[in-house]
Design goal:
The longest helix is centred in the C-terminal third of the chain and has 23 residues. The chain is 47% helix and 15% strand. It has an 8-stranded mixed sheet, with helices on both faces. It folds into 2 domains: 198 residues, 3-Layer(aba) Sandwich (Rossmann fold); 73 residues, no CATH class. Helix 1 crosses helix 12. The protein contains 12 helices and 8 strands. The protein is an alpha/beta fold.
């Protein structure tokens, strides 16, 4: 495999084309990005992992070079996309961020094809309030998007899903700082996929507050979280779920936030590589 990224495409069960970026050498690892994220945003960690793994980072449906979510969008369609990528690449490992981490855990509930997995602050609703699960922010965000106010829709979204952090900041302040904090290109992209993002969060909410549904996952799963493990919903979910799965470990990064995979790829990749190498060794010992 070349040291440079190549782009490949596979057709999912419903006919939707799913694109992925691939590079590296060794056992194949699929990276599943979070809500509104593109595969290329994970090039840093993919490159850091490529010395030990062949890394395939998918553009989830509705994003990047993949096809649209389609009229029958659901959690099940997302899982079919991951399975299509696994069949095409022979992947043995999964790595997911945020909503992608939720999809990884849902995949492992039904599949025994993987030797190990890792999730960074998975977007799983755990012990959430009725208000959170009903996503009261979603209707306002959708209306703002339909009115052509994409940045307003995005601000409503981030305030709604992060009430402990961005939810406390005035909307006017966020509108001023986001172009500088994120970059105008990234902000334009994420604000432009608000309808897709809302559908994704509704699917996560549909199966929310059921942490025990993941207790059947037997393979080794590495849970990772940043400095906000006790103060944000994603952080608390990480901690809670790491106690539910029978073969789980938890690693925290005190200097990183929710976007540690993108901001400090080498740091996260080192921990993931060690975990997956351990999973491989354990699997080999069991087959002897």
């Amino acid at each position: 495999m070349s040291s440079h990224f190549q782009t490949a495409r596979v057709t999912s069960a419903d006919g939707t084309p799913i694109s992925y970026r691939i590079m590296g050498n060794g056992p194949t690892l699929i990276i599943v990005p979070g809500a509104s994220a593109l595969a290329e945003e994970f090039d840093g960690i993919a490159s850091a992992l490529a010395a030990s793994f062949t890394v395939a980072t998918i553009d989830r449906r509705g994003h990047g070079k993949s096809g649209s979510q389609g009229p029958r969008y659901s959690l099940e369609r997302e899982l079919e996309d991951i399975e299509a990528a696994r069949e095409a690449t022979g992947a043995q490992f999964l790595l997911g961020h945020s909503f992608g981490g939720f999809l990884v855990l849902e995949t492992l509930r039904k599949s025994t094809s993987y030797a190990g997995a890792a999730v960074y602050e998975p977007g799983v609703f755990v012990d959430e309030t009725t208000e959170t699960l009903e996503m009261e922010w979603a209707d306002r965000s959708a209306k703002e998007f339909a009115a052509g106010k994409q940045r307003d829709a995005f601000i409503t979204f981030i305030r709604g899903v992060n009430p402990e952090t961005t939810g406390k900041a005035p909307r006017a302040t966020l509108k001023l700082i986001l172009p500088f904090a994120m970059g105008r290109t990234e902000l334009t992209h994420k604000a432009g996929v608000i309808p897709e993002t809302i559908r994704e969060h509704r699917e996560a909410a549909r199966v929310g507050n059921q942490p025990s549904r993941y207790a059947q996952i037997k393979i080794p799963v590495l849970f990772m979280a940043g400095k906000d493990i006790t103060t944000t919903a994603a952080g608390r979910a990480t901690q809670r779920l790491s106690l539910v799965l029978p073969n789980a470990t938890l690693t925290t990064f005190p200097k990183l936030d929710h976007f540690g995979m993108e901001k400090a790829p080498a740091t996260v990749a080192e921990v993931v590589t060690a975990a997956f190498n351990s999973s491989t060794t354990a699997s080999q010992n069991q087959t002897r």
